[in-house]
Every structure is written in C-alpha cells, then in structure tokens.
Amino acid sequence: MQIATDQLDAQPYIVKAIILLAGIEINILFAYLIIALFKLRKINVREMMAQTSEHAPQGVMGPIGILSLISYSISLSFNHFLLLLGGLSFSIGIFNLLPVPFLDGGQLAYYTIEALTGPLSDGTYNIAIFLFFVLFIVFMFFITVGDIRKLWK
User: Fold this and answer.
1) Secondary-structure percent of the chain, ordered helix, strand, coil, rounded to 5
2) Element (H, E) at 19
3) What is the DSSP string of 76-123?
C-alpha cells in the first residue's frame, strides 16, 4: 500500500517521520528475526556467513553480483539463502536511510529541512532530484560493469 504524497505532506512532521522510518524498521526487523530463528535452532550463523561470503566478490555489489550470490547461497542450502535474504533486507534498510531525494532517507531529510526552515522551492527540490538521479544512474552503471567484470574472472 502506497500513501499519496499530498496525504503525507498534510501530516505533521512526526507522523511523516514515523511513516518513512516504518519500512526501514521492517527491513531491519526481518533480518533480526531470521538471525533469532537461527539462534533458537542453534545454527551457527557465523559459519554460514563465512561459507556464503567465500563466493562473494570484494567491494560493492550491484544487482548482477547480488543475483550471483543468491544463486550460490541456494546451491548451499535453504538456510544459507534465508540468511542472505536477511542480510539483503538489512542492507536495503540501511541503504534507504541515505539522504538521497528518491529514498526514504532523502524524503526524511527534505521534511526535516522543511520543518526547520520552511518550505523549499519546487525548483530547488527538482534540481536536487535530477542531480541525485544522474549520479545514481552513473553509480549503478559502474557497479554493474564491475559486477560483470567480477563474473568473468
């Protein structure tokens, strides 16, 4: 379910913050629950992480590297796959905290600046979105090229 931007804009700052942080909290909670489940079943999480990370390329991974790691974790066991999903969920939650305009952290930063200084002009906000979008596309291009190079090695 997606909340309309004008409905969110009409809310007080604290409500906006709670709504934007809720998705991030769910990502982190999901990762915690998976690790707690493994601990209850007395599964050695560190050993499983070490086994999975043997196949992981060093550095930042993009979608291709993540898919490669997912397929490798499935080949090990369902528990390895589940642990990787928890790790990815945690990483997505942290990534969404970045103050990039089209992520939850960026929206939170925008609403915080707006609460402290008053409304930003549409032009300023649109320029920020455009610049971050271009930078994001360039970043993803280099990450994807790096993933492809790592797969061919």
Assistant:
1) 80, 0, 20
2) helix 13-40
3) H-HHHHHHHHHHHHHHHHHHTTS--TTSHHHHHHHHHHHHHH-PPPHH
Which residues contact residue 123 at a Cβ distance below 8 angstroms, ignoring those fewer than 6 apart?
Answer: none
CB-based contact 116:29 (threshold 8 Å): no
Residue 96 sits at φ, ψ, to 5 deg, of -65, -15
Residue 89: DSSP 8-state: H
**56/15 Cα distance (integer angstroms):** 39
Condensed to tens digits (0 to 9), the pLDDT of residues 10-59 reads 889 999 999 989 989 999 999 999 999 999 999 999 999 888 888 776 77
The model's pTM is 0.81
Tell me what the pLDDT averaged over the chain comes to. Answer: 88
What are the boundaries of each domain within the chain? 5-152
Residues 67, 85 contacting (CB under 8 angstroms): no
What single-letter DSSP state applies at residue 103? Answer: S
Q: Are 69 and 55 in contact (CB under 8 A)?
A: yes
